[in-house]
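Appendix B, record 7
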Amino acid sequence: MRRIVTSLALVLAAATAVSRAQAPPTFKVGVFDANRVSEETDEGKRIQAKLTQFGEKKKSELAAKEKEVADLRAQLDSQTLSLSPEKVTQLQKDAQKKGLELQQAQEAARNEFQIEVSDAQNKFQEQLMRVITQFGRDEGFTMIVERSTGGVAFAAESIDVTTAIVDKFNEMVKAPADAAAPAVKPGASPVPLAKPPASPPPAKKP
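Structure tokens (predicted):
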């Protein structure tokens, strides 16, 4: 009888071991908010402040050119009758020239700002993907998706890892020692820095 019980126990133990060995791996999923990462990380705040400062500088430069054009037009309106035809013609040419220069400066400022934004987004995106990859490996995640672009209709708060990714980002990405971030003006609209790719890069084979 003891032999039967012992044999049965061994069979059950073996079956349990096989069952555990054949159990599917744990599927661990996390979601995060890319906008929060770009707005809450130290690097994101520094870049936002830098872009805001760049934009304000361009606005100031354009405002000076706009004033030149406005002053010339005001002079024409107020002094046309008292000036000689030659002087009026010259002022009209000057106003047209300044107006053209203003349009060119506006277009150049838009292009320069877009280049700055694009460079900032590309750099931040590379940093974010590196951080998420490291975070996912460290924490044993099977998949981490972005809320807005990952096609997520619903996700429980318990699997939201945004705050953890922000902390990991601040740990891995340090601002340059000589980079003092200028203050962002209240009410300034943040530029979206994080743009998760439409499809993730293929996983490397072990």
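Remarks on this record: The beta strands are 29-32, 143-146. Confidence is low (pLDDT under 50) at residues 1-19, 196-206.
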